[in-house]
Design goal:
Organism: Solanum stoloniferum
Radius of gyration: 25 Å
Shape: globular
Helix content: 25-40%
Pfam family, one: F-box
InterPro entries: At1g61320/At1g61330-like (IPR053772), F-box-like_dom_sf (IPR036047), F-box_AtFBL13-like (IPR053781), F-box_dom (IPR001810), LRR_At1g61320_AtMIF1 (IPR055357), LRR_dom_sf (IPR032675)
Strand content: 15-25%
Number of strands: 15
Protein name: F-box domain-containing protein
């Protein structure tokens, strides 16, 4: 009797296993695509081997994060691999975009060591992102994934794509022969931008101001290592911009921020900074490689906001006995709760 009962129990368990259903695959396409969007592009594409149901789902994800900084560790040890890895990366991104079918993009991120030699491919990627009403456009092209490259070797943002007629790099202001037809559509589709990030990308103040005044949802702008940024004006109460980060742009001659609702500001152009009527500004970080007279230079430009700041970070590199040292001051206004250091 016990043996029969044991046999019945096993058969019952086996039957349960056999009738188990794949409930995840029964979810609507929109839900599955949303879930896949939280994976990396490579991980999402790998789900295509699960079944016919999953074969093409990944092609509709709305977050394309092409972060491939891990191979750069090998390149650091063997510089000869740099060109090979760059070609591999360019091929990977371009081939993936050809397979993507989504009509909208929440994020398009390029994160790899790319220079101006990849100009044609990157131009096409930006065009693709704008055609999908991208909300977060991030070009993180740092050398080795960590360092700002020399300005003359940086990729230059194609001003012609916005219909702007001039650029610091003349080769970037002339459209490719077969690209003129997409200009009108592109000039409409960039208006969904909320976040704009350029690292080791040459971009002019004219281009940045164009985005500021033509993107009604743009809240965050980050520019690191641009050699063509000379003058920038962030002016106008209608601007949505809340967070501005301008670092390592050593050719900046003036940075004017007036009549805006900016909340946080980070810049290494403190000596070139002009602030006026920024009532929402509560956090400022200023860095410089020059110690002499630096505090005196920035004291005048911060005088109109010092009483309203919740936190002020001053980061200065200076030499002492032949060594480079970092001086970092944290100033918190009384009555305000401390904010963690950056």
């Amino acid at each position: 009797m016990a043996k029969r009962l044991h046999s019945f129990t096993l058969n019952k368990c086996q039957k349960r296993v056999c009738i188990a259903k794949d409930r995840i695959s029964q979810l609507p396409d929109e839900v599955l695509v949303h879930i896949l969007s939280f994976l990396t592009v490579e991980e999402a594409a790998n789900t295509s081997v699960l079944s016919r149901r999953w074969l093409s789902l990944w092609r509709y994800i709305d977050r394309l994060d092409f972060d491939a900084t891990k191979p750069l560790d090998k390149v650091a040890l063997q510089p000869k691999l740099q060109k090979r890895q760059m070609k591999k990366y360019l091929r990977w991104v371009s081939c993936t975009l050809q397979m993507c079918k989504g009509q909208r993009l929440d994020q398009f991120r390029v994160c790899f060591d790319l220079n101006k030699s990849a100009r044609h491919e990157i131009d096409k990627w930006i065009e693709f992102a704008f055609s999908r009403n991208v909300q977060r456009l991030e070009l993180d092209l740092l050398k080795g994934g960590d360092y700002i490259r020399t300005f003359e070797n940086c990729y230059t943002f194609p001003a012609w794509l916005l219909g702007l007629g001039d650029s610091a790099d003349s080769s970037s202001c002339i459209p490719h022969s077969n690209d003129l037809q997409i200009l009108s559509s592109v000039k409409q589709n960039f208006k969904s931008l909320k976040v704009l990030l350029f690292k080791s990308v040459n971009v002019t103040g004219k281009v940045l101001e164009f985005f500021l005044h033509n993107c009604p949802f743009l809240e965050t702008m980050v520019v690191h290592g641009s050699g063509t940024l000379v003058n920038l004006e962030v002016v106008g109460p209608s601007l949505k911009l809340r967070h501005l980060d301008i670092q390592y742009c050593y050719n900046v001659e003036s940075l004017k921020i007036c009549d805006t609702n900016l909340v946080t500001l980070r810049t290494s152009a403190g000596a070139k900074l002009l602030l006026k009527n920024v009532p929402m500004l509560v956090e400022v970080e200023i860095s410089s490689a020059e110690f002499i007279h630096f505090l005196k230079d920035i004291s005048s430009c911060l005088s109109c906001v010092i009483s309203q700041l919740v936190v002020l970070h001053i980061h200065v590199l200076h030499s002492w006995r032949g060594r480079q040292e970092s001086l970092r001051l944290h100033v918190y206004n009384k009555g305000c709760s401390p904010v963690k250091g950056i």
